[in-house]
Request: fold
Amino acid sequence: MDTVVISSGGLDSVVLAHKVAQERRLIRLISFDYGQRHKKELSYARLCAERLGVSFSLIDLSSVGEALHGASALTGGQDVPDGHYAEETMRITVVPNRNAIFLTIAYGIAVADGAQAVATAIHGGDHFIYPDCRPGFAQSFETMQKAALEGMADIELYTPFLHGTKADIVTEGVRLGAPFDQTWSCYKGGAIHCGRCGTCVERQEAFALAGSDDPTAYEDPDFWKKACHV
Amino acid sequence: MDTVVISSGGLDSVVLAHKVAQERRLIRLISFDYGQRHKKELSYARLCAERLGVSFSLIDLSSVGEALHGASALTGGQDVPDGHYAEETMRITVVPNRNAIFLTIAYGIAVADGAQAVATAIHGGDHFIYPDCRPGFAQSFETMQKAALEGMADIELYTPFLHGTKADIVTEGVRLGAPFDQTWSCYKGGAIHCGRCGTCVERQEAFALAGSDDPTAYEDPDFWKKACHV
Reply:
């Protein structure tokens, strides 16, 4: 089944790309530049497409980021919080309607490609704060797309991690031989992962919960244990 | 009710902007540049925002247009057909998933604005060819957005023309005093409307069906009568 994958270059979506490449037919990776502070993640998405030998589309949504005028930390309005992904610190990292925007664009490209599926790495670990990562969203999105493309295309929304945790994704990545050291999670975009921001803490916790070695180099490799009360 | 309006600068969406400005609270016009052949329409959208004294956001989606690589006449792949909006000639003017893409971005901006509604000028005259102009799409889109923004925002999709024809929109525009001569429909983007392309024919037919004078200057003002068998 020809499938396009939305990939940020982060751990979740790079594992997804490797899963699709091995189990389906990966035809394109799509990344989005929405004015996030650093573009480091995106270079890992491009690298993933090159490694898997598929087309890469970088969609420039910086004018959307500008229109959102400081509504989110990821687009420059506020400082990125340190610490565990607690509800309050995560709330400000939400770009309003991000997944719906990414998915509708990916569906448009999938129609042009003649693809049968769009894959996204939304997962259970994000359910408690991001409504657009929940099963109810995924189901209603697929229903909406069936109506929007009626008579033109019938494209599945493939969400294999929807009911899993980030630790499950690490376990799946180990099974698939995905190169974790060629993925990027840190919100701060330094030379190496900071180890302190919400995504760095979540990443380290996921490897620990999966019982897997974490090949990532962190500036502060011990902070996460305090944040997670380990 | 604070409402953002998606407006191309065409007749339908300029009438919609005037309707919202008079009957609700218009706070922003949003237009999209998706690599369409000419930008003439967009200048009329900006003019409409200035006339109504509201913010204007031009969202640059040209990289989406590029990714769609010639899938549609509007983005450069094929010639624009002359004649009435018959099914075959209209099919190639479809940009895949266009309305869903525009609406998800407008919803994201509406969240940032604290708006309660997003308005779009989709109408019954487009139902037979564009699935993303039909009531089933509008309903499923609103349902999807409620899931995507659960706990963050509850934003209505306002579609006052959904069950009407383009002639009904002309009638409504007359009632509202909307300046039809400051709207643009022609796909060809010349100095004045060509009179021959699908949208020019449809525009002239709508004024005739509404029994209203058409203030538009056309290069070929009689072609539409043949196309519509008048």
Remarks:
- Chain A touches chain B through 48 residues (CB under 8 Å).
- The two ends of chain A are 42 Å apart (CA to CA).
